[in-house]
Amino acid sequence: MISLISLPLLVVLTIALGLVADRHGGDWGQALVSLWTWAFFALLLYRSEGGRWRLLACLCIATAGEVVLSLVWGLYDYRLGNLPLFVPPGHVLLYWLGLQLAERLPLAAVKTLPWLALVAVSMQALAGIDGLGPVLIALFLVCVRWGPAPRLYVTMFLLALAMELWGTWLGNWAWRSQVPGLGWPLANPPLAAGAFYCVLDLLSDSVRRRRNCPAA
């Protein structure tokens, strides 16, 4: 059986190598990555008895978010112009990884990294590289300051940035050069894209808390 210690490493390998396989795996690459990712999601769901509703909520919310942000709004495009089937469960895998790592993040990092991110995003905005960044970084800072899980938000910010840099470098997806409908410049990827995971956690955890509330 897969140990709890090896599961986080397997998540990292699944995301890192799965994106490589999707990009360079030929006609069957995306299908095989999707099959593996859904199977891995099922395993995490089985192993997370106390957090199943949270993961299921994450899956539903992430799917809806992808449809709105990519297919409807068109902020970014996947390389085949579709929504790859591995993407929704892939979001759950990354979210689960953040839940496992968050408590290990030093408090100093929680206090320092948001301000470093603010400086970096502000420099991009002033240089005319990313006009959406200030909105995203403001959302991130609000969540860190007043949200219930600042360690998780900072952890997800870092994990999402790493995944975005890897995926856009490989060419699995690309962000548009401008925000559709607004004309703002848009970086590929936006440094503060991890702010979307703050919203994802707030919504997913609210479902978990509702399910755990005893009936009146």
UniProtKB/TrEMBL annotation:
What keywords were assigned to this record?
Answer: Membrane, Transmembrane, Transmembrane helix
Q: Where are the transmembrane segments?
A: 28-46, 53-76, 115-140, 152-170, 182-203
- Protein name as catalogued: Uncharacterized protein
| Source organism (scientific name) | Zoogloea dura
